[in-house]
Protein: Phospholipase
Organism: Congregibacter brevis
Amino acid sequence: MRRWLVLSFVSVLSSPAWAWSDHASLLWPLVRVQPELLKPTLQAESLNDFIAAEAVGLALVLERHEAYARESMPHYAPRPETLVFSTNAEDLQDAFLRAIRVNPELGYSLFRQTTVEDRSVPSSQAQRFADLSPLAGGVSHDSIVYIALKEGDLVAPAHVLATGSDEPDFGMDIGLFEDNGTEFGAQYGFGVQPFGNPNLEYSSQAPFHMGFYHLDWVTKKAQPDLLRTYPEWRVSLFRELSRFAFETGHDYWGWRFAGWGLHYIGDLSQPYHAHPLPGVSTMAGIWTVIRGKTEEAIQLVSNRHGVLESYQYQRVQKALEEKSWDNVILTAVAQGTPVPEFSESTVRDELTKESVAVGGDLDASLEEHMPPRYVSDVNFEWNGSGEEAAIVVTVASDRGDLAIEALDAKVAEQMTRFSRFAQAWIKDAQRAWAASN
Ligand SMILES: [Zn+2]
């Protein structure tokens, strides 16, 4: 059993842990129809200026939140005392980034992502992913154009929120474990990377972007390291920081922190990010081990995870490029279904529970409608196969238009869940914003 699980997490996380690619574009269909978020009323402010202006209050907020996390989050890794945010720190921004335990080597500069509705950017202001992140990016990030902002530039909440919601994939959560070979990871107190291959560029962010809050008893016993996942903590922390920024009149940072938190909500709406092996029951898992078929089962789950994300990305991107706002997937993102009120228990007790509950059905649907080679061939490796860009064409030619229709409907179901929780999150931020204005 132990070997099964260890193997599974080296393998599953060999693929870049992106979940939904390009979170900003994914959010766009939802925020573009909310006029109150589209007026450019926020003044861009550097992170350093915000921290310097509010250092005393920030120190209190961070202390309070640390105490809360220790008390209420099972398996939380307490922040070492050496990282307490000090208002006397020589470099306040660096001290803040270390106190919240994100990668302190990123610039956290002022920028926003363009959308399909505003593509013209003066070349002097245009930026690419490589200007903002040390990571290799990938198909989705390479094509995005960003606009550099100056302090004081006016920008709309929708843009700040959407852009911020992609930022945790820029390397914010890379290298935070003590065996990741970084100077900060050695100090952050998260211990050794609980799963995934610490040598792969993206895999170290996985325990922050996957939340395994509903494991069965066998898995918990056999592989307790899987309990060390942190997106719930990230969401809660960024919610506190967002509220504090609104309360103190730094609305730009109120929305940017809200964007950061929204990233993890999006990731956890992806069933393969809420359970390590969706569709594999405890007994089936044990039986697989007994038959010696573990590596094969794991390869299939890993491929299905990657295939789903590639297909979703291609379908969303095409619909956005064509501005097909009535497309079934974009409509699912934008639709106004009843939303739950966001609270501290939402991530654990609602969002991830729902994602886990539909995992088996989603997995079966991929098995039914995707080309068998992609999802049922244990000798095939999706990651690095070079088939990502043409996936929709291949599905259409191998399985026919009905398969596309069925898969679109299945992706739309996942997007409906994403939308419901994203709306709850945005409403929560809007309340905090309104209360301070
Ligand atoms: Zn992510």
The pocket of zinc ion is lined by residues 19, 168-169, 209, 263, 267 (CB under 6 Å).
